[in-house]
Write a structure and sequence with these properties.
The protein has 18 helices and 22 strands. Helix 11 runs antiparallel to helix 12. The chain has a 7-stranded mixed sheet. A hairpin with a 2-residue loop joins strand 9 and strand 10. By secondary structure, the protein is of the alpha+beta class. Helices cover 36% and strands 22% of the residues.
């Protein structure tokens, strides 16, 4: 039997991971002939490196959760084991009530489980702290609920405004009163369904023994090196990776799939869709209109990252820690800042005379900042940094990266929508979807969804065309 030909549409980390699992670039043995089609001129999606002030930095995602094994395992499989680096410091703060205050320990996505640590942090007002200590019982949660609504009812609004919102904002750039507990923090949903004490449940979760190793990992030279390494491994395994190749049309045929790419017809036994939800909706409109309608309803948040390079000689006292988060309730311009040179030892070693940091602006339905000129975004960032950490120096170089429609939103009912999307799409046979729009926005979740998509399209149930492998590029 010849190997089936699988086309992967989308060259972000999910699409690249799918290509690696199909081609055997991950060391697992080749399972299919692979063609990957990326519409833009570069691979990597939200993983993107660049140079600011003569220093190589990340202009997109900068770290990956290591407690989930999928992303780290992928990095190891493509030769980056020796490049894995944990953060040099994890001492984050929250800029609230006119001061930088330590992020309290014993919390899960901002939901506290240790009132002593919460009190010591000073994040809440005395009134907010007292309300958190008077946890109120609420009816057991059913299928799903917004994180903000649940936590506010239990522990008070201030816990949501000053703790949960900034933590969630860093992950989803969304709103706590809309984000699904089931989709974003499923371990808390299990507590909510019992109706038991939330503080005690979070304390048990936060103190549960964990496997050894760091919580997060980065890569020497930046996380932007990961897609480069995966792509190189895929090509070495025989995969055909094409950039500048938008797919104009995707249609099911009796033998498999027909794609039109720049006027050229391409045939495949199976297809893995690893593109954002709006693009997936466009491609599936003809063959799976119900799934396409659900995909088109997925909303996205946009944000801008402002990366700045300072000369250390201009900083009498460089900022300390890994950075800080900003609760929207405080009305600041930025929503977070990362002190990159503190956080990543490789960055400090590569540029000892420079200090790199970055800020982020914008979140779901509050994206006006993305339309401002670069110099205005830099000015707003410097103004807030001046208030937060007393920064008065001017950067010698800056870069503004706009991620429009960068993060899919996970509102209440998101996972039910995903189930409907997949049911409608997979009825076609030889088709699976993966990426940030479905099972998690983090890199490990995207890699895991790619693995599941590959397994789906290569099972006998996916259709006889896949098992017979009769089609060719």
């Amino acid at each position: 039997m010849s190997q089936p030909h699988v086309v992967v549409i989308g060259g972000g980390i999910a699409g690249l991971a799918a290509a690696a699992f199909l081609s055997g670039a991950d060391g697992g043995g080749g399972r299919a002939a692979v063609t990957l089609l990326e519409a833009s001129e570069r691979l990597g999606g939200k993983l993107r490196g660049g140079e600011v002030g003569g220093v190589q930095v990340d202009l997109g995602a900068e770290s990956m959760l290591a407690r989930r094994p999928e992303a780290v395992a992928l990095a190891r499989s493509v030769g980056l084991a020796d490049s894995l680096r944990p953060p040099g410091t994890a001492k984050a703060a929250i800029w609230t009530r006119d001061a930088l205050r330590p992020l309290p320990g014993g919390q899960v996505m901002g939901v506290p489980g240790d009132l002593d640590a919460l009190a010591a942090s000073g994040v809440l007002t005395p009134e907010g702290l007292a309300r958190a200590g008077r946890e109120e019982s609420t009816p057991a949660v059913g299928d799903d609920i917004a994180i903000g609504a649940y936590v506010a009812a239990r522990l008070g609004r201030e816990v949501v405004d000053r703790l949960v919102e900034p933590l969630l904002g860093g992950v989803y750039a969304g709103h706590a009163d809309e984000i699904s507990l089931r989709a974003a923090v499923p371990q808390l949903l299990a507590l909510a369904r019992t109706g038991g004490p939330l503080l005690d449940g979070v304390h048990e979760l936060a103190t549960r023994p964990q496997s050894g190793g760091p919580v997060f990992q980065g890569l020497e030279g930046g996380l932007g090196t990961l897609p480069e390494a995966v792509a190189a491994a895929c090509r070495a395994a025989g995969a055909d990776l094409r950039t500048g190749s938008p797919v104009d049309e995707l249609r099911r045929t009796p033998e498999g799939w027909r794609l039109v790419v720049g006027g050229e017809a391409l045939r495949a036994d199976a297809v893995v869709l690893a593109v954002p939800a709006p693009e997936a909706a466009r491609l599936l409109r003809a063959e799976a209109p119900g799934a396409a309608a659900e995909l088109a309803a997925v909303e996205y948040a946009g944000m801008a990252l402002v990366t700045m390079a300072f000369r250390r000689a201009d900083l009498p006292v460089p900022p300390r820690g890994s950075g800080f988060l900003v609760p929207p309730v405080d009305g600041r311009r930025i929503k977070a800042s990362t002190f990159s040179s503190n956080k990543w030892g490789w960055l400090e070693r590569s540029a000892p005379d420079s200090f790199l940091l970055r800020t982020s602006l914008g979140r779901h339905r509050e994206e006006q900042a993305l339309d401002l000129p670069d110099e205005e975004l830099v000015a707003r960032s410097l103004a807030d940094l001046g208030e937060a950490v007393g920064l008065t120096a001017k950067p010698y170089d800056t870069a503004v990266t706009r991620w429009r429609a960068g993060l899919p939103q996970y509102p209440v009912g998101h996972l039910d929508r995903v189930a409907r999307i997949r049911a409608g799409a997979e009825r076609l046979g030889g088709l699976a979807l993966c990426g940030a729009a479905y099972d998690g926005v983090g890199i490990p979740a995207c890699v895991a969804s790619a693995r599941a998509a590959v397994d789906k399209v290569l099972t006998p149930a996916a259709g006889a065309a896949v098992t017979e492998g009769t089609m060719s590029a």
